[in-house]
Specification:
This protein is mainly beta. 0% of the residues lie in helices and 48% in strands. Pfam families: Por_Secre_tail.
Length: 274
């Protein structure tokens, strides 16, 4: 049977209010050896998949904040495990990534060796995008202290900066064995707050949606007239729904299996149920 999962099965809700906040973490206030960092009130964990990645602060002047040398960054401290791979992950907030800078080299810091970098964004363990960059890396220290800009607004000709994720995974390939990451620029939507999984639809004031999951038909109960919109997780508008005060019947059976987001105006804010 065709099923379109409309909200998360565990009733995970997200409330979105107003605008996104762009922040750049330069790691200058983080502790050497720390497996996590905090920026704009959000805690990110540094998860080592292959090699040992954490905050590096032992070599002043070897980082890059986007315009000048700085002192702290994430790296694998010349750990020989291969292929080096780590994630930046948070369980308290969702985020989007704009850009970051990476030093990619052999273990002896030779920038001229050939290599690749695979960038993967995940949400709840599901891959939302993945791309492998194989050209355009810095091969000398000047003018960016050996760092290469990884720009998700134009990664291999695609824009991935608007995709909501909770994990950014980076994996080196080819002859790259050392990685340093600095000037991590990301977006925190000011109202993206993950609430407890035991919340119910009725706890979101003014609206309830059921059943969830659904094979297509669903009921939307609201206290006000509204024009609702159904989006894919990458932000693409898929369907408009004209919602009247009371209980409304809707159907999304034409959509493929997946997770979708319903937006409805609620005063000056929006309610998103995912």
């Amino acid at each position: 049977m065709k099923r379109s999962i409309f909200l998360t099965i565990c009733s995970l809700f997200i409330s979105l209010f107003s605008f996104g906040q762009t922040s750049t973490e330069q790691f200058e206030t983080e502790s050497n050896g720390s497996p996590s960092f905090t920026d704009n009130g959000v805690i990110f964990n540094i998860i080592s998949h292959v090699g040992a990645f954490d905050i590096q602060a032992n070599f002043p002047g070897t980082g890059w904040n986007g315009t000048a040398n700085d002192n702290r960054y994430i790296d694998n401290s010349n750990d020989p495990a291969t292929p080096p791979s780590f994630s930046i992950k948070t369980t308290s907030n969702l985020f989007k990534v704009n850009r970051f800078w990476m030093f990619l080299s052999s273990l002896n810091l030779d920038l001229t060796v050939p290599g690749t970098l695979t960038i993967t964004g995940k949400l709840s363990g599901v891959t939302k995008f993945t791309q492998t960059k194989s050209t355009g890396f810095a091969t000398s220290m000047a003018p960016t202290n050996g760092y290469t800009l990884i720009d998700l607004t134009n990664l291999n000709g695609q824009n991935y900066s608007n995709i909501i994720i909770d994990e950014l995974r980076l994996t080196l390939g080819g002859n790259y064995r050392y990685a340093g990451l600095d000037a991590f620029t990301w977006v925190k939507d000011s109202g993206i707050v993950v609430l407890a999984t035991n919340e119910t639809a009725s706890s979101q004031k003014g609206m309830s949606i059921y059943p969830n999951p659904t094979s297509g038909p669903l009921s939307i109960k609201t206290e006000d007239n509204a024009q609702a919109e159904v989006y894919s997780q990458d932000g693409k508008l898929l369907k408009n729904l004209d919602i009247k005060k009371g209980t409304n019947q809707a159907d999304i059976s034409e959509l493929p299996n997946g997770v979708y987001i319903l937006k409805t105006p609620s005063g000056s804010s929006k309610i998103i149920k995912k």
